[in-house]
Design brief:
This protein is of the alpha+beta class. The chain has one helix and ten strands. The strands form two sheets. The chain has a six-stranded antiparallel sheet, covered by helices on one side. Strands 5-4-9-10 form a four-stranded antiparallel sheet, with helices on one face. A hairpin with a 6-residue loop joins β4 and β5.
Length: 164
């Protein structure tokens, strides 16, 4: 019987080590992508909270009335803060395409409404959310990442104007 010499190949141990290394690399990449998408929706929710507080505080401290208006164009949700005394846009924010917004208004019987066209104003004396066109913007705003399903909720209380 002739013995084979200098046979090249991989041992089972070498193949298992390579498999483990590749598995760890894929797992890290998935986790990193998931963190990026979660951070995006979280940052939009934080920005929205900050802008609502800015809107409320500027309305109380200034002599102007400000309004936050939601819209949906070109597959993007957008909101802008408008100074109603001169009609100028103070700030405009466009959310990422992968962010979906669901609104549950306290004043609506069905609660879930289309966010496009929702307007939010605060009363200058009390900070209370005012009625605009028969409805007010008080309620829950759920920002959801359509890629990974992560959700963040921003809630506006009508009587106090508190933003959570």
């Amino acid at each position: 019987m002739k013995l084979l010499q200098n046979e090249d190949g991989f041992t089972m141990m070498e193949l298992m080590i390579v498999f483990v290394i590749i598995s760890v690399a894929i797992g890290m990449a998935y986790y990193s992508v998931n963190i990026v998408f979660s951070a995006r929706v979280d940052s939009h929710a934080s920005q929205y909270r900050a802008d609502l507080r800015l809107l409320r505080d500027k309305t109380i401290s200034d002599i102007h009335t400000y309004e936050l208006v939601w819209s949906y164009t070109d597959h993007h949700y957008t909101y802008e803060i408008i100074d109603l005394s001169d009609g100028k846009t103070v700030k405009k924010i466009e959310l990422s395409k992968d962010i979906d917004v669901n609104v549950y208004l306290a004043s609506e019987p069905t609660n879930l409404v289309d966010v496009a066209g929702v307007k939010i104003r605060f009363d200058a004396a009390t900070g209370e959310v005012k009625n605009v066109s028969g409805a007010n913007g008080a309620g829950k705003y759920v920002l959801e990442n359509t890629v990974n399903g992560k959700q963040f909720t921003v809630e506006i209380v009508k009587l106090t104007g508190r933003i959570d």
